[in-house]
Design goal:
Keywords: DNA damage. By secondary structure, the chain is of the alpha+beta class. It has 14 helices and 19 strands.
């Protein structure tokens, strides 16, 4: 399948935006200007101003000599870039591969996308119609190469759709400027009477290079597909992504659920063919007004079970606000892992306790958030804060065993908390301690257990740990920091036993 590109030219990008914010300017001549060398130079002109001969590059003083009532706005140097990026994000509903083409264009790689809208003609028409209805004066074209699509969108007078293989025919009647050449090159061509591409394209390449430089040959090769043109996408394309455009905007929860299920079925079928399962998924809805609604889920282990994934998404569908309607749905799987047929059978048959545990954890995480549920594995460190690590999945195996020869609390505080202690010296356990304003009288104690710092990681004092029990039967893990000396040592609580 040949690649297909759409280039979109916003003919009055900045002035269109100004009119959207100030509707009273519609149909009036106005310009945007910047201060250069003590004078104001026009950088953008409205369509009404251009109709009066006022255009880019003119000095404001000269323009006002022609039209004294001309309105002038100061240029925002970041506005065009911000507008193009926002419009590119809006166009993600039509293709995942979009690049910004400064100063006033977008490039869309639409290979394999047009069939979702019934063909290239309705596909291109919808994009242009939506942008024009949003208030932007645009021209667009579709072709096998970026160069030819750009040329036709800017200078074409016939059809905006260049049929596959018809690149040369589309380029021949266009002016040299359609090849995106620099102004000095265009001026030399005009002096020689080369006003159309067909007047020089058959000349020997050596002659063209000698007279006009390598850029002309490079642009010709790019436009004719002889060399590839690299574009920088605004957002990396997810490898696992499915799209569903809607004939009519979707406004109901039932419609959203139907779209979600269809996308899940297609995505999971692909994952099954490739022996993979997803660990995270994102469901997006592109609204008519340009807003993007999005919900996300995560799983504790790879899965491609449609029903299970649908139930996880179902918990969050109520957060989607369709407003006037959603016209395109996208399902992405940014995290995908290998999944064997044996693992998959656990989901399909319900056999094995691990499948039930994973199912339950996923649904709890869907309600409480992925950060609310954690699984820990032992790590090869004696220092308590480093003696465990967060597991990446439910199936990850520990590299070491939990230490069982010494008592360890079921709940370890993320950071030890300072307590007040009354204790005999030098190495006796405390008789009582005060924690959060409450006095705990110690009736049983075990220790001390000395834990030295891992000097290859950090410096500091050792800890002497005690497992103590108060008069209420509650058991705590406390420690003294460092040796007794002329200063009173500090005591901390670090955990609670079951």
């Amino acid at each position: 399948m040949s690649r297909r590109f759409i280039t979109i030219w916003f003919r009055h990008l900045v002035t269109d935006r100004i009119m959207l914010r100030k509707p009273e300017l519609k149909g009036l001549p106005f310009v945007v200007a910047v201060q250069e060398r003590g004078r104001k130079v026009i950088t953008a002109a409205s369509a009404a101003a251009q109709a009066l001969g006022i255009d880019y590059g003119m000095v404001v003083a000269d323009a006002r000599a022609t039209l004294p009532s001309l309105q002038v706005f100061d240029e925002d140097p970041q506005l065009a870039e911000k507008l193009l990026h926002a419009l590119a994000i809006w166009c993600l509903r039509y293709t995942p591969e979009i690049a910004v083409d400064p100063p006033d264009g977008l490039i869309l790689d639409v290979s394999g996308c047009a069939y979702l809208w019934g063909g290239e003609r309705p596909y291109l028409k919808e994009i242009v119609t939506k942008l024009r209805s949003a208030g932007y004066d645009v021209r667009a074209a579709i072709a096998d190469t970026i160069g030819t699509a750009w040329a036709v969108s800017h200078y074409g007078q016939v059809s905006p759709i260049v049929e596959p293989g018809a690149l040369l025919d589309a380029l021949l009647p266009l002016p040299p400027a359609a090849l995106r050449l620099e102004q000095p090159i265009l001026e030399r061509m005009h002096k020689l009477g080369l006003y159309r591409i067909n007047s020089f394209i058959s000349m020997p390449r050596l002659t063209l290079r000698r007279r006009f430089g390598q850029l002309l040959l490079d642009r010709l090769d790019q436009a004719l597909g002889r060399s590839q043109e690299i574009i920088e996408l605004i957002r990396p394309v997810e490898l696992y992504q499915e799209r569903l455009p809607c004939l009519e905007p979707i406004r109901t929860a039932t419609g959203i659920e139907i779209a979600l299920r269809r996308l899940l079925e297609v995505l999971c079928l692909r994952l099954q063919r490739e022996q993979k399962g997803l660990r995270a998924a994102v469901f997006k809805g592109f609204r008519i007004d340009g807003n993007i609604q999005q919900i996300e889920i995560g799983t504790n282990r790879p899965t491609r079970n449609v029903e299970h994934l649908f139930k996880l998404f179902e918990l969050k569908i109520s957060t989607i606000t369709p407003a006037l309607g959603i016209e395109v749905f996208i399902l992405e799987a940014p995290v995908v892992e290998d999944l064997s047929q044996v693992q998959d059978s656990l989901w399909n048959t319900g056999a094995g306790h691990q499948a039930g545990v994973a199912n339950l954890l996923d649904r709890l995480a869907g309600r409480l958030g992925m950060g609310a549920i954690r699984r820990y594995l032992p790590d090869e460190h004696y220092w308590p804060e480093r003696s465990f690590r967060l597991a990446a999945s439910l199936e990850e195996k520990p590299a070491a065993d939990w230490r069982l020869d010494r008592p360890r609390p079921i709940c370890l505080l993320s950071k030890p908390e300072l307590i007040e202690v009354t204790a005999p010296i030098p190495d006796y356990p405390p008789m009582l301690f005060i924690y959060k304003g409450k006095i705990h009288k110690v009736i049983k104690a075990d220790g001390p257990e000395r834990i030295e710092r891992e000097w290859w990681l950090e410096n500091g004092l050792h800890r002497d740990y005690y497992a103590v029990e108060d008069e209420q039967g509650a058991r705590y893990w406390i420690f003294r920091l460092g040796h007794y000396d002329e200063h009173k040592p500090e005591w901390f609580i670090h955990g609670v036993f079951a």
